[in-house]
Amino acid sequence: xxxxxxxxxxxxxxxPTEVPAELTPERLVALDDAKIFAxxxxxxxxxxxxxxxxxxxxxxxxxxxxxxxxYARPEAAWAARCHTVAxxxxxxxxxxxxxxxxxxxxxxxxxxxxxxxGLDAVVLWHAYPVIGLDDRNQWDHYxxxxxxxxxxxxxxxxxxRVFVDYNPWDVGTRRGxxxxxxxxxxxxxxxxxxxxxxTLKKAEPExxxxxxxxxxxxxxxxxxxxxVERIEDHSAxxxxxxxxxxxxxxxxxxxxxRRHMQHHVRRWHRDHTEELRSAWLNGVGVxxxxxxxxxxxGWSRRDAATVARMTAVQRAAGDLLLEGEWTPLAELDPAAxxxxxxxxxxxxxxxxxxxxxxxxxxxxxxxxxxxxxADGRLFDLTGGGRSADGRAAVPARGIAALLHVAEGTxxxxxxxGLLAELxxxxxxPDARFRHRLARRxxxxxxxxxxxxxxxxxxxxxxxxGPYALTVRYRARETGMxxxxxxxxxxxxxxxxxxxxRVLQRDGVLDAPVAVAATExxxxxxxxFLDATGYTPALPHRFLAHWRDGRPAPGTLDRPVTFVDxxxxxxxxxxRGGRLPTEDEWQLAGETGALLRGEPAVWNWTESEHSDGRTxxxxxKGGSDHTAEGSExxxxxxxxxxxxxxxxxxxxxxxxxxxxxxxxxxxxxxGGAR
Length: 673
Description:
The relative contact order is 0.11. The protein is of the alpha/beta class. The longest helix has 18 residues, at 46-63. The model has no long low-confidence stretch (mean pLDDT 96). The protein has 16 helices and 35 strands. The chain is 23% helix and 22% strand. A hairpin with a 2-residue loop joins strand 13 (291-292) and strand 14. The strands form 11 sheets. The protein has an 8-stranded parallel barrel. A 6-stranded antiparallel sheet has the order 15-16-17-22-19-20. A 4-stranded antiparallel sheet has the order 23-29-30-33. The radius of gyration is 28 Å and the shape is elongated. Helix 6 (179-190) runs parallel beside helix 7 (205-214) and helix 10 (301-316) packs antiparallel against helix 13.
């Protein structure tokens, strides 16, 4: 396939903006559009470059009549110190236990403390990429989760702020109130601290006002570049896919307003050192995102350790970073500069902090400051304590920090605790990516009596022996069985995203398999309940469309829905069978013997997988339901037997859907039936 772009190279829109040597009024306005102000390579050019940055900021604030009043809201002050935010799928297996059927925030936060030094906030991602499977809208995917408010309260009790996610593209599911009303009500009901604006750079003023009324101090964080004029009322922004200059540059939004927090993120990258370097030198934060819509993109030990070291300093020295005089690309010893070391300097009330980053692949150990301070005390924060001569060890693609306390200035109260924390957080040079393999899970034996010894209706028989299959699917950010679909790519675009793809699967059937020609009906499932008294361990949404425990009149012959994998497994076991695997379903379907019920619904298959963080299953058959209006929905429509959809499994009964049913399979004795 030929592409018109190289997905491994930043697009023009991602690249830093050069700061012209002569700033005309037109050029000053043009700089408003930058993501990052590119830095000059020659040290001699940097003082003038910094002067031009100051000139742009003064001009831009005047043009936009900026007064910073939004940042004076006491309820929102936390955002300026929110350096690490994790984006987490509600059903991430660190946050949710499928075995226990409950949320496990302590386990999730303990892992974050151990590897990343803790989190300041989380985005609870909820609907995409499962929304569109049925008529549930984005609000339903929050509101129908039992115990969600308790989860938010537990996170708050641990000192972690909570963002909810807003999907403005959700226009083709069940309609309720308008989005502004729904979101404002949700924020108030969950006591959410902020809103992540998925696919939006900014919220419209009406939404800002309504959210503020519902939850004073609510923090809005847009995706990607935020317009200068909206820094006024958006306390944070998501610095996604921001490419830096060779010499680290300055983030435009944070330079404009120091209290505006940005979170660097390149979701598909396995080397995060460039975005970490930019965050460290700009005094901003990072988005820790290890499971991207069901795909493992976990951070290396090196990068995780760097986050922990960065945030330890940023949390302790927050006043310096927010209120101190910031000098980007501060002067360093020429040997350090030649070694690829860069620094920002922050000065306030007798304290001077240097944040140092090494962009090279070699450790630098030696002088970093142009000269040792003549008085006071100099502390090598990341080197374990005091430094007498302005020397430091800055590890390859890592960070370091120095703190000078002027003569007569008290040593800050936070210094001993910071040194102790950094002593527990050494640099880790291990940059390997640690893969996770998704493994097929063996289903637990259902606790129901067997009611039959084999199929009692029409079936499609799949013979024993080897097989090879062509599977068709739509390329989504979920990937398929293993691995990330867009390794080290910038922003995936069509035809890399949402295009039709194929994969080959092969295997061997040890014995012939019979797959029911028809899906299990509502009448058949009611018979199963009457015979066994089956009750699911987690009853939420179980047969939600039934009334008084029975199907509605006239629907007995329709496929049963609002059942999850365990419900389907229990029924098949009662029938003396099991669910077919996705391959068996496809092999049976390709015989032409499988019939579709009315309405057509997706079919569960015995294909539950987990990589330890995400559970998923393959759906077969297609559905008469289709959510229209956005490419981000799960695709609908009737599908051929070769078509598969990877569905991330939610917990607490949320997997039960109006558009998913099942059919049974039976292992036959060797030979023909």
